[in-house]
UniProtKB/TrEMBL annotation:
<dbReference type="InterPro" id="IPR015943">
    <property type="entry name" value="WD40/YVTN_repeat-like_dom_sf"/>
</dbReference>
<dbReference type="InterPro" id="IPR036322">
    <property type="entry name" value="WD40_repeat_dom_sf"/>
</dbReference>
<dbReference type="GO" id="GO:0015031">
    <property type="term" value="P:protein transport"/>
</dbReference>
<keyword id="KW-0813">Transport</keyword>
<keyword id="KW-1133">Transmembrane helix</keyword>
<dbReference type="InterPro" id="IPR001680">
    <property type="entry name" value="WD40_rpt"/>
</dbReference>
<keyword id="KW-0472">Membrane</keyword>
<dbReference type="GO" id="GO:0005085">
    <property type="term" value="F:guanyl-nucleotide exchange factor activity"/>
</dbReference>
<dbReference type="InterPro" id="IPR045260">
    <property type="entry name" value="Sec12-like"/>
</dbReference>
<dbReference type="GO" id="GO:0005789">
    <property type="term" value="C:endoplasmic reticulum membrane"/>
</dbReference>
<keyword id="KW-0931">ER-Golgi transport</keyword>
<feature type="transmembrane region" description="Helical">
    <location>
        <begin position="146"/>
        <end position="170"/>
    </location>
</feature>
<protein>
    <submittedName>
        <fullName>PREB protein</fullName>
    </submittedName>
</protein>
<keyword id="KW-0812">Transmembrane</keyword>
<keyword id="KW-0256">Endoplasmic reticulum</keyword>
<dbReference type="GO" id="GO:0006888">
    <property type="term" value="P:endoplasmic reticulum to Golgi vesicle-mediated transport"/>
</dbReference>
<keyword id="KW-0677">Repeat</keyword>
């Protein structure tokens, strides 16, 4: 093996590391940060005081991370579990103290046939394991979205309504 790249990712120890799509790397460190890297460049990161206001930095720490390509799953030393969108780190799911103590690992259920059976109608499923000797399945509900045809119909209606209002406000507009 030959070292290809070396850079300082965190202040202190790295708790976990996960490889993501597009050669991205996710790290969880003892410095209370979770970071997404492209080579040695920081793409984006999470800090407790920015992501979860009102929760003291020192009370929580990211312990485990996994990146499914679409989602980033995180576990903490206090037993909390979260799922974020991988590219923006927007939080979609959070359970405070899902476990009684340290989450040691998290893993997404694969999108194979047995995995899809576990998912049911949910968008993603994350397994968490903790020092409390428990394994828990976290299901991310499917996010609602508008069909494209409905969005186009709404836009067309808005354009027609705007033209009618302009015609009423300014007779002879058309």
């Amino acid at each position: 093996m030959k070292k290809m790249l070396e850079f300082r990712a965190h202040d202190g120890e790295i708790e976990d590391i996960a490889l993501g799509p597009d050669n991205k790397v996710v790290t969880a460190g003892r410095d209370f940060q979770c970071c997404v890297w492209q080579q040695d460049q920081l793409v984006t990161g999470l800090r407790w005081h920015e992501n979860l206001p009102g929760i003291p930095d020192k009370a929580y720490r990211y312990q485990a991370c996994r990146d499914s390509g679409t989602f980033l799953g995180l576990g903490t030393v206090t037993g909390s579990v979260a799922i974020h969108i991988a590219f923006s780190l927007q939080r979609l799911y959070y359970v405070k103290e899902a476990h009684g103590i340290v989450v040691t690992d998290v893993a997404f259920v694969p999108e194979s046939r047995p995995g899809r059976e576990l998912l049911g109608g949910h968008e993603a499923a994350l397994l968490s394991v903790a020092v409390d000797s428990r394994c828990k399945l976290h299901l991310l509900p499917t996010r609602r979205s508008l069909p494209v045809w409905l969005l186009l119909l709404l836009c067309a209606g808005l354009i027609v309504a705007t033209i009618l209002l302009l015609q009423l406000a300014f007779p002879g507009f058309l």
